Amino acid sequence: MNYLNAFWVGGLICALCQVLIDKTKLTPARILVSLVVLGVILQGLGWYQAVVDYAGAGATVPLLGFGYSLAKGVAKAVAESGLLGVFTGGVTGAAGGIAAAIVFGCLFALLSRPQSKS
């Protein structure tokens, strides 16, 4: 059942984003930034944790989950370090995802053979 919940919640998030791309004049970059900010806001209000508990990777893998990780890291760092945690917590909380993106990006750049589209 966990897989099914992850699948439909993640799919719903992606479908809503596709509707925003198709039906509004928002650029994809603005939609992506809005998702991260929405994830931070929802976690700051304490609402996104329930979605993560229900859907697991379906809620943490999309960009809403990146905002969730940033907010969760900041909250933890503020509790441990005070005001300094506001500046360090987001990077620490999302370090695993950022490191994975860099490593896999470099790996695929080495393995692929880019070609011109023309």
UniProtKB/TrEMBL annotation:
Bilayer-spanning residue ranges: 6-22, 29-48, 83-111
Assigned keywords, A-Z: Membrane, Transmembrane, Transmembrane helix
Short name of one Pfam family: SpoVAC_SpoVAEB
Keyword tRNA-binding belongs to the record: no
Keyword Ion transport listed: no
NCBIfam families, per the entry: spore_V_AE (TIGR02839)
Protein name per the record: Stage V sporulation protein AE
Organism: Agathobaculum butyriciproducens
Organism taxonomic ancestry: Bacteria, Bacillati, Bacillota, Clostridia, Eubacteriales
